Amino acid sequence: MQKLTKPARLNPGDKIATVSLSWGGAGDEEVRWRYDQGKQRIQEIFDLEVVEMPNTLAGSKYLYEHPEARAADLMDAFAEPDIKAIITNIGGDDTIRLLPYIDFDTIRNNPKVFLGYSDTTVNHFMCYKAGVSSIYGPAVLSDFAENVEMPEFTQHWLRRTLFDDKPIGQIPTAPIWCSQWQEWAGGDPDVARDFQPNTGLDLVQGAGVIEGQLIGGCIEVVDWLRGTELFPPIDEFNDSILFFETSQEMPAPANMMAMLRNLATIGVLQRANGMIIGKPYNNAYYDEYQYEIAKVLAECGRQDMPVLYNLSFGHCEPKFCVPYGAQAQIDCDAKTFSILESAVA
Question: Where along the chain do its domains lie?
């Protein structure tokens, strides 16, 4: 795998941009309160100055019809020297339509913190193609704007990842979890979601201690990217640790099997050193996914691959951050996951 350029760490007072790169609901009248709440948290909790790009709040109808406007916001945010980080408002399902308007040199020549998850996997692979490490993590509408308060677990790992240039270290599973949906359009910010006690990490298979560089994302979106110019050359997966998680669509176990088989067919699973899997959305198919993972790995001769399951990233709250290209470690005996270097320089 190539060595990715790390962005500079953030400091209190830095200016960060929010962007709507897929669904544009942050600018819709009935959801705007949610964006404002997330923006306020970024400013008050992390002491960052938030600015919107010209189309950040243009609304879902306009942004659906104008992918070039979404892409222009992204390119301008990377190009603007005063902007030190870019945080996505939310994912969606059509970030891929930005691809014709992306200038990879703009990203390559202006590395900075880029943060988001879900359909934002597409943007992360844009950064990867440009040789820049981005960070799979919280979004404005879902995490920073969490009802009542932002979970301390999420706050802690954001600080460790974005503001600290020391190795991130061992990351435990969060003590609680929640995927409960509460309506954003006209929703009540004072009604807390129901968080539940979390279980620990499960070892699907494997033994010993392995290391590798992190690459992955929302597995459905990774599957969409196969065959596009954004999907890395197959050798980029050599000695990697794959990280995958599932979306709110809660793909059926048979679909999980098919997506993993596709990755085996093109040689990805055979090249990786290990795999970590995020807690499934709403804990759906918790046991069934483990069965399908082990089944597909056996089919392609990878019964030896360490697989750690139920990590707190992706479509569950609270969550930690996963920096692309960072060296990480799975300890099967201790059932621990660690990121051995910093995400920022």
Answer: 15-166, 176-339
